[in-house]
Amino acid sequence: MTDVSFTTDRMLNFGDCDISGTAYYPSYLNILNGVVEEFWTVIGYPWHEIIWNERWGTPTVHLSCDFSKPSFFGDKLTFRLTVLKVGKSSLRLRHTVHCGEEQRWSGEQVLAASHLDTHTSMPWPAEVKAKLESFLPADGMDQPQG
User: Fold this and answer.
1) Labelling 86: which of 13, 57, 66, 129 has CA 20 to 30 A away?
2) Alpha-carbon 123 to chain mean position
């Protein structure tokens, strides 16, 4: 399978942790939101432009997470975002988060294209849908390997 995932690193900062220095899960979700925002910027659709200029957004309509190992203040975490499915107006993503070779947590997220003025769903603009589909695995598998 061709790896077309988006990968980026984040440092686990002091403010992301509880008193014991362990990652606090709401901070994980805030960091994840930043990773998703970075993905949209890298593919050419920064949120500040689509929100203010084009008046559409990508709200999360579903999110599930599994936390397998704790992370600690100072850990460098690698976030891997994989596009699993591009629908008419939705996008299903898989997230895996590692520290070195050790997986720390994973999750799935569904985003929906939404008109910001009417708060209703909308189909992806054709060029956006094509760009998102370019991140689908070439072999058509629904789950990333490894």
Assistant:
1) 66
2) 19
Residue-wise pLDDT for 62-71, tens only, equals 999 999 999 9
Q: How many CB atoms lie within 10 A of CB 39?
A: 20
State the pTM of this model. Answer: 0.91
CA-wise closest residue to 114 among 102, 125, 103, 101: 125
What CA–CA distance (Å, rounded) separates 126 from 134?
Answer: 12
**Which positions ≥6 away from 116 have C-beta within 8 Å?**
51, 55, 56, 57
Pinpoint the alpha helices (H) of 1-146.
25-42, 47-49, 126-133
Q: What is the DSSP letter of 14?
A: G
Name which of 142, 2, 3, 6 is nearest 78 in CA terms: 6
The tens digit of pLDDT for each residue in 36-86 reads 999 999 999 999 999 999 999 999 999 999 999 999 999 999 999 999 999
Q: Count of CB atoms within 10 A of residue 62's CB?
A: 11
